[in-house]
Structure formats: C-alpha cells, structure tokens
Write a structure and sequence with these properties.
α1 packs parallel to α5. The termini are far apart. The protein has 176 residues and is mainly alpha-helical. The protein has five helices and two strands, in the order αβααβαα. The protein has one domain. The chain has a two-stranded parallel sheet.
C-alpha cells in the first residue's frame, strides 16, 4: 500500500475520533453533569455580551476553550480539504459550530450563543493557518501531514486517557 494512502487513512481515522470527541464534549458535556452546569435553554444573539463574570471581571476562559477546541478541526481541514477554496473551509467551521449550538438549544443541553459560534469559527481558522504554517515549514505537504498525524496520534491517545479518567471519576475535577 502506498505510504501516502496509509497517511490519508490515518488522518481520516484521527479526524473521525476528533469529531466524536468534539460532539461528545460540546453537546453532551462528556456525559457528566458538572456542578456549575444548570439546565439551560437560552439564546444569546449579542456577541460577547456575557464577557463579564458575576464579580464584574472579564472571564475569557470559556472563549479561549471554544477557540482551542476547534484548532484541531482547522488543522485537519488543511490536510483533508486542500482542494476547497478557503471561504468554503471557513463556512465549514461556521456551519459545524452553528449545528452544535443549534443541537444544544433544541435538546436543552446548553444555550445557543453567537459568541461560541464566533470563537469556534475563529479556532478553526487559527488551526487552518497553523497547518499552513507547518506545511510551509516542512516545505512538503506529505511531511507536514506525517508530522500532524504523529502529533495527533499522541494527542488522541492522551485525550482518550484523560476523558476515560474523567468519566471514571479518577481526576481531581469535581462533578456530580
């Protein structure tokens, strides 16, 4: 089997695992009810309106997490959707985030928040730019893909271990 075909198959498998984790984390909150979560079904159509926390200080943690969780999506998109125009890839990030936010609202799993859509889309864009930088550094898309696959394989294994430990209650994070 051609080494490039093996590399593509691994990338697709890693992307599928990432998407499953993404939906599990964002839609089902890891199937864990954290103590800070309430049953919310709300809509926020004003971007960044909930930037201030209850004590009046700026809370960027959720926004940063939304950007970070979509970074791998952008990296995978850079590899798997090379032939797409950049606007189509950006729309994919937006549409995926919109679908997740819509499902959160429809199934009362969380709130529909335009800020999350913006930050998720931004995370995908940053991830895509990161991949393009990696590709430029390697001066070869095949070598860049191999690097991403190795890094993503290690990251995927670590993610599965951490999520498993969380689900089994073996981490310091408290949940009900």
């Amino acid at each position: 089997m051609n080494e490039n075909i093996k590399s593509n198959k691994l990338t697709y498998v890693l992307f599928a695992v990432y998407l499953i984790a993404l939906f599990w984390i964002l839609l089902f909150k890891l199937s864990v009810h954290f103590s800070y979560m309430g049953n919310r079904r709300s809509v926020n159509l004003i971007p960044f309106s909930e930037l201030l926390s209850q004590n009046g200080k700026i809370d960027l943690s959720e926004m940063i997490m939304n950007v970070l969780i979509f970074l791998p999506f952008g990296i995978y998109a850079g590899i798997l959707f090379k032939r797409w125009i950049i606007g189509k890839i950006f729309f994919l990030f937006f549409l995926t985030s919109l679908i997740i936010e819509g499902f959160q609202f429809i199934f009362a799993l969380g709130s529909f928040d335009i800020t999350d859509i913006i930050n998720n889309t931004l995370g995908g864009i940053i991830g895509l730019m990161t991949y393009l930088g990696i590709e430029k550094a390697f001066k070869n898309s095949v070598k860049a893909q191999k690097f991403v696959n190795i890094t993503a394989s290690i990251g995927t294994i670590l993610m599965i271990v951490l999520l498993s430990l969380l689900k089994m209650g073996k981490l310091w994070i408290r949940y009900q």
